[in-house]
Sequence to fold (410 residues):
Amino acid sequence: MNHTDTFASALRSLRSNKLRSALTTLGIVIGIAAVITMLAVGEGARRQVAEQLKSLGTNLMLVLPGTVTAGGVRLGSGSRNTLTETDAEAIRNQISGVVAAAPILRGSGQAVYGNLNWATQLYGIDADYLAARDWTVAHGRVFDETDLRGGAKVALVGETVAQMLFGGTDPTGQTVRIKGVPFTIIGLLGGKGQNAMGQDQDDIILIPISTARGRILGQAQGRLRSVNNINVKMADGSDMQAAEAEVSALLRQRHRIQPGQDDDFNIRNLSELVAAEQAASSALSGLLAAIASVSLLVGGIGIMNIMLVSVTERTREIGIRLAVGARRRDILTQFMVEAVILSLLGGLVGVALGIGTSLTVARLLAWPVVFQAEAILLAVASASAVGIFFGWYPARKAARLTPVEALRHD
Fold:
């Protein structure tokens, strides 16, 4: 009996019991669909988290004001600006591997253009900020040394501000008033989207830090050269934990903090946050896939049960085939082919159902999904493996029947 005859015989047997064959594959269909849906949703979530964290900048540390004590009273973190521009300069010059150390003076204000206005974030920055945040300028130019040192009234605006004040057109060359001060827009920032906390990073206006100090955010900060935080970007391949320790030691020395005293600053290592989020997302995806795989196991057991029933029902047929010259290998092969066909059909239907379910989830819940060819191929291969594994015992039982025993079966 050749392979073509075996395959045709298996198909005839399955077609003769269409409803039972369909119900047999149901467990495989549900299992494969669940695996594909879970992996697509999990991978989409993982990539979304990675993109949000990446938008903050890679190899980035945030140095923030910490707890200070005044008159014996410990004030909360950030209650007083304990960081200065000179701290940023020291980090840039004295810590190896630092690509950028950007001091930031942060505030908010109303931007006015013609009869339109928009409340937005205002950041006073220096030349290192865009490099630290991996931020590009889509149109126009960046601040030059003259702008930064001379307190020029120039600005870079984010996409959200451009949309609200200029209808999404290129605002380069236009003039906006910020707290009554006219600023010429010299560039439009590239889009960043929301960060991991859901804040719109494009709702922002950047101005030179000297201008922010002298004209927008108060003279007191100008005298102290204090800043709200410092963004420190390290070179690729840097040991972020070692760099964090070096920055901490340098700031403790500069701020004259004695051994045993609390730091008056905090350092947040975003690379660790990225790694932790990705690990959590990967673990969640693995857990979802493992749960979905239970359906495959249930489907496989269903195939084995139905195939055992089929062997019992067709015992006399098997006996006749053996009596007229069929080999045990032919009987084994036919039942194995039937099991694999059931599994593959269930797998293909499950793939289609899984893709459809994932797209429905994405449309109804606005949840990102990412399909991976490897996951789909793995699902189909898993379906085949289930058919082979759970079809082996019934096929072996059928092949081991003797013609006399089989022909005596009623």
